């Protein structure tokens, strides 16, 4: 498993598309999204900051831009579910991550259940009890 992970990490996104590694790559992305959100909710201090930074970097790598992967609904759902966490730093990291992949969110079909969930969660984020989170929540615009 570690050799497969090393191969996936060392391979560019353009090479992965259409290859046998694509399925494994998508699974790794989902696992990393989940790992960082769980880490943020369980630990504190420097490890939490590191997990937060890595979650945002993972969102950048999944932004759909040139040379990057594209976050799928499962990865976006991990971020949306993180917005319901009682841990303010996890909600903040999820909001930051969603800002990074904002173009993907606006390109989605606006009639899906996930889009409705996204709009509800981002609207609620504007009124977060943590002031920093509320400020980030206000940075989202709605159609």
Average residue-wise pLDDT = 77
- Give the topology string: H per helix, E per strand: HHHHHHHHH
Task: Name the shape in a single word.
Answer: globular
Tally of extended strands? 0
Individual helix count: 9
How many domains?
1
Low-confidence stretches: 20-24
Describe the structure.
The protein has nine helices and no strands. It is globular and about 35 Å long. The protein is mainly α. The termini are far apart. The protein has one domain (27-137). It has helices at 2-10, 13-16, 21-42, 46-61, 73-82, 88-100, 102-107, 113-125, 131-137.
Write out key terms for the chains shown.
143 residues, mainly alpha, 9 helices
Task: Produce the secondary structure layout.
Layout: H1 2-10, H2 13-16, H3 21-42, H4 46-61, H5 73-82, H6 88-100, H7 102-107, H8 113-125, H9 131-137
């Amino acid at each position: 498993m570690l050799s497969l992970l090393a191969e996936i990490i060392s391979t560019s996104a353009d090479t992965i598309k259409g290859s046998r590694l694509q399925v494994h790559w998508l699974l790794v992305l989902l696992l990393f999204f989940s790992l960082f959100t769980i880490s943020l909710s369980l630990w504190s201090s420097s490890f939490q900051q590191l997990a937060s930074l890595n979650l945002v970097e993972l969102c950048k790598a999944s932004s759909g831009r040139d040379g990057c992967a594209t976050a799928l609904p499962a990865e976006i759902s991990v971020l949306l579910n993180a917005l319901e966490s009682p841990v303010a730093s996890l909600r903040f990291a999820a909001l930051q991550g969603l800002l990074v992949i904002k173009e993907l969110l606006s390109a989605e079909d606006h009639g899906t259940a996930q889009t409705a969930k996204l709009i509800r969660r981002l609207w609620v984020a504007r009124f977060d009890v943590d002031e920093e989170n509320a400020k980030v929540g206000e940075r989202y615009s709605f159609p």
